[in-house]
Amino acid sequence: MKYTIILLTIIAFYSCSPSATKSNDSAENIATENTDGSVALLEDGNGVSFLNIQDGATLTSPFVLEMGVSGMQVEPKGAPREGYGHHHLLINDTFVPAGIVIVADETHIHYGGGQINDSVYLNPGTYQLTLQFADGMHVSYGKEWSKTIQVSVE
Fold first, then answer.
1. DSSP calls for the chain
2. Cα Rg for the chain, rounded, in angstroms?
3. Could you state, in order of their start, the residue ranges of all structural domains in the chain?
4. Cβ proximity of 48 and 85 under 8 Å
5. Distance (Å, rounded) from C-alpha 154 to C-alpha 150?
6. Which of 40, 53, 74, 100 makes the best surface tag, with the fewest CB within 10 Å?
7. C-alpha–C-alpha distance, residues 114 and 147, integer Å
8. Which CATH superfamily is domain 46-153 in?
9. Which pTM does this prediction carry?
C-alpha cells in the first residue's frame, strides 16, 4: 500500500510537470521552469536550448547555465538507451558529428550526472558556446542535437 501511494504521487508529479505540458499548436513547444521561476519555451521541434542565455549576451563569471532539451529525456551516463542522453558544453568548438565520442577536457564539459544547470566560470573574453546532446556513453547525436551561441564575458 505504501509503495502504491508513492508510485501514484510520482506519476501525478511527472504528468503535471511543465515539461510534460505541450501546446496545441502544430509546432510543438515545451515550457520549462527556470531556477528563477520564469518560464522558457524551447525552440520549435526537437533539439537542445540555452534556456537562460541569449546569443550575443554579455555575462559575468561565474554565470548560471540552464540547459533544455525537447524530444529526448535527460538521464545520467550509462548504457545507451534510445531517446535518452545528457548534455555537454563545448567551449569554442562546434557540434560533434553523430556517432563520435565527445572527449572530456577543460573545453568539453560532460554533464554525465544528468545535470540540467551549472555554474560556469570563464575568463573575460568572447566565447562560442555549444550545447551538445549525446547518449549514455557520450556518443554525440550530431548537429541536429546541438545549439551554438556567442557570448562575451566581462
1. -HHHHHHHHHHHHHHHSGGG-B-SSSS--BEEE-TTS-EEEPPSSSEEEESS--TT-EE-SSEEEEEEEESSEE--SSS--TTEEEEEEEES--PPPTTPBPP-BTTEEE-TT--SEEEE---SEEEEEEEEEE-TT-BB--GGGEEEEEEEE-
2. 16
3. 46-153
4. no
5. 14
6. 100
7. 18
8. Immunoglobulins (2.60.40.10)
9. 0.73
